[in-house]
Amino acid sequence: MPRSLLSRRGVLTAGAASLLAAPFLRLLTGTARADGALAKRLLVYFTPNGTIPGRLWPSGGETGFTFGAGDCLEPLEAVRDKVTIIKGLQFHNATNHEGGMAAMLTNGGGSSSESQGMSLDQFVASRIGGGTRFTSLEFGVQTSAWGGSAQTRMSYSGPGTFVTPDDSPAHAYQRMFGDLLGGESAIERLRARRTGIVDLASRELVDLHRRVGAEERVKLEAHIEALSAMEQGLSQTTTCEPGDAPSVPGGVWDNDAFPTIATSQMDLAVTALACGMTNVASIQMAHTVSPVVFSWLGVNEGHHSLSHTDDGNLAGVADYVAAERWFAERFVELVQALDALPDPEGEGSLLDTTVVLWAQEMGDGRLHVCTDVPFVVAGAPECFPGGRFLDVGPTNHAHLLVSLCRAFGLPNETYGDPAAGTGPLAGLPA
Q1: CB neighbour burial string for 44-81, b if at least 16 within 10 angstroms, e if fewer
Q2: Model confidence pLDDT, tens digit, residues 91-125
Q3: Is the pTM of this model over 0.85?
Q4: Are 62 and 94 found together in one domain?
Q5: Residues 110, 127: one domain?
């Protein structure tokens, strides 16, 4: 927390108690979620190298659509009522692999733009990530063998500033659970420490209660009540005790280990959201121009190479569609995992208050174009009612990014380069 904020408000001393009081401080400083925000968490899922349009899109109307038998998105039938499939989006001033990767979550935009050059995950995290242990968590699956570049990075904390995903499930696990890896005694010590922190924060906020105006006092009373409930819960149980550490026998760069790594990273991301470790997470499956060979499906050619397969090469098209279906199946698993867990802060499932965004960096991979780029949104049904196929084209995807911000109560009118347009995407709640 900036020292200037502490001195100006004269609210908290320092340390962990400041973290717990952060949600109320955001109320005072105007950076909290707007009232009425329905989404509490964001999970971004990325898959690379574009698609074959003729084997992708459903047919039919907005709610009466049908997936093609054997097509790329057919696995989504299992969660049909949870998803919105969006066709017709295009990127502003971006094309090819690198341009699409850089624009996908940023829509360009410099530091003076409304989104300050951040990718969507980092922008949302900067607004709703306070008060959690990690402002955001980035999980990668073989993203960094080529280093950090516009080809391998999708998250930006500012113009041209990469946020690097963690490709090692073991390392991510250690970051998340390192302070619990000492058996029951370590868990009890952690519980006692966290309970003490909550108690300290509560006492400091009670003192603050005497020094604020009536309107802020009402909000503060609700925050004190929430801290009291948190303290009681901590004294009773620890809900996020670690399971077994993930293992990747072949190493994180072993091609055939890709499915194992993906499963481990997905599990960790869901756990982090369910346990309140973070409100924003991302899972980056490889990177644009990814050479991963889907050997576990009996495929012998790299994914990027397959993405350039001509329609006349029936065997190559079949292999590419099989790889794309595998990615779709992992997205379904994420949606189902979130839907199977209760919302720790209220009624319903974790999916009910989590926006899950499946993003890609190109449309037709053979043409290297960033037009008709597929996006799928799941979760937070009051913001994104499921069971829909929206054809909005041609429309700049900045409008979708604005809609996603609005789901979190953020007042964005633009996202990234303002020349791309203003306002949310037509057909989605504003």
Answers
A1: bbbbbbbbbbebbbbeeeeeebebeeebbbbbbeebbe
A2: 999 999 999 999 999 999 999 999 999 999 999 99
A3: no
A4: yes
A5: yes
